[in-house]
Structures are given as C-alpha cells and as structure tokens.
C-alpha cells in the first residue's frame, strides 16, 4: 500500500548519519509549504498514512545544523516533533540550538512536544490524524520554546523565582543568541527573553 514505497530506500540509510534524513529524497526539487521532522522512521510511515506527506526523520541521531539547513532548503516553515518525555525534551533542545544558527528572518521553526508517552505513531493510531494536526496547530514557535525551555532547565519547571535563577537563565541564553545570524529575529528573541526573566 501507501507505506511500502518508504521501505525500499535502504541505500539512502548508509550515508553519513549526521547529515542524513530519512525520506528526504522523496521531497527533492519542490519547495514545500511546511515540513515536519519526527524522531523515527516508523513515525514517518504512520504520518504519511495519516496524510502528513511532508514528513522526514532524523535517523537515531541528534539534529545538527546540517540537518536544519537541509530542512530549510525544502521549506521555510519547519515543525520539529518530539516525544513527550525527558529524552524528547533533550532532543528538542538540541534541535532548537541547531536551528538558531541557521534560521533566517523569513523562516519559522515550531516545536511540537507530544503528551507524555506518545509518539506520532501511537497518537495517530489511537486518536487519528486530527489529534496530530491539533498538536501541530498548538506547537511552540521558536521564540516561545527558547524562553520556555531555558526557564524550565534552570527552575525545574517552577518558573524563575530568584535573581540567581534569572542570572543563570541569561548565562545559558547569551551564547545561543550570539550564534544567530537572523538579526531581526535575534533582537526580538532578546526582548522576549528579557521580558520573561524581567530584566528589561
């Protein structure tokens, strides 16, 4: 059926994993309205069966700036989807850091963090494609995820309560912001971050 054409891409799985993205060869040569990157190739198969054809996966590796560059060559609007567990948060953070150095002012990145213990495969199987669609629509834009994830790291999810925690959050954010080449977006991220840590 529909999913079978994804299975005979064995030769594409041999490339350098750092740069390789599963199913990306199916997207060649056209600019997509949006592109979704999920964690595993089973997710890609389930997503394509659910009608999300613009889906690729990083193969058992954390998402590098090289990956992100390839994704943005295909679409100006990239969604990263991660499982709702500690590993998912960690992977999302790596993807965010990789995105900061690549993204331009005319591109957007969104982060989907699925409910605890769900992946796209299980979510679509149990609740249908519309459940994943809802997750996409409520995804965090890069700016919000940036602030949220750093605050979460520093405060274990409690929110910043002390000057020390605020200082720590700034120390984490600063080198990440300095990596950015998208000037307008960086300015706005700095402002949003400052507002979040109440430093302006």
Any overview of this molecule?
With 200 residues, the protein is an alpha/beta fold. Helices cover 48% and strands 12% of the residues. Strands 1-3-2-4-5-6 form a six-stranded mixed sheet, sandwiched between helices. Helix 1 (41-49) runs parallel beside helix 4, helix 4 (120-127) crosses helix 5 (129-137) and helix 7 (163-178) runs antiparallel to helix 8 (183-196). Mean pLDDT is 87; it is low at 1-16.
Helix and strand sequence: EEHEHEHEHHEHHH
By helix and strand content, what is the structural category? alpha/beta
Uncertain ranges: 1-16
Write down the overall mean pLDDT. 87
Percent range for helical residues?
40-55%
Strand content: 5-15%
What does this entry show, briefly?
With about 200 residues, the protein is an alpha/beta fold.
């Amino acid at each position: 059926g529909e999913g079978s054409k994804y299975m005979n891409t064995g030769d594409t799985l041999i490339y350098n994993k750092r740069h390789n993205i599963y199913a990306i060869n199916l997207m060649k040569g056209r600019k997509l309205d949006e592109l979704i990157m999920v964690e595993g190739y089973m997710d890609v198969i389930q997503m394509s069966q659910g009608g999300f054809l613009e889906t690729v996966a990083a193969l058992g590796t954390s998402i590098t700036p090289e990956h992100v560059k390839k994704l943005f060559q295909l679409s100006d609007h990239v969604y990263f989807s991660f499982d709702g567990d500690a590993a998912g948060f960690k992977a999302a953070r790596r993807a965010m850091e990789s995105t900061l150095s690549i993204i331009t002012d005319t591109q957007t990145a969104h982060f989907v963090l699925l409910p605890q213990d769900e992946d796209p495969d299980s979510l679509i199987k149990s609740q249908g494609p519309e459940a994943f669609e809802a997750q996409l629509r409520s995804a965090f834009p890069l700016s919000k995820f940036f602030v949220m994830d750093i605050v979460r790291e520093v405060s274990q999810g409690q929110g910043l309560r002390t000057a020390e925690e605020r200082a720590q959050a700034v120390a984490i954010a600063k080198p990440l912001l300095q990596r950015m080449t998208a000037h307008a977006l960086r300015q706005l991220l700095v402002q949003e971050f400052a507002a979040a840590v109440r430093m302006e």
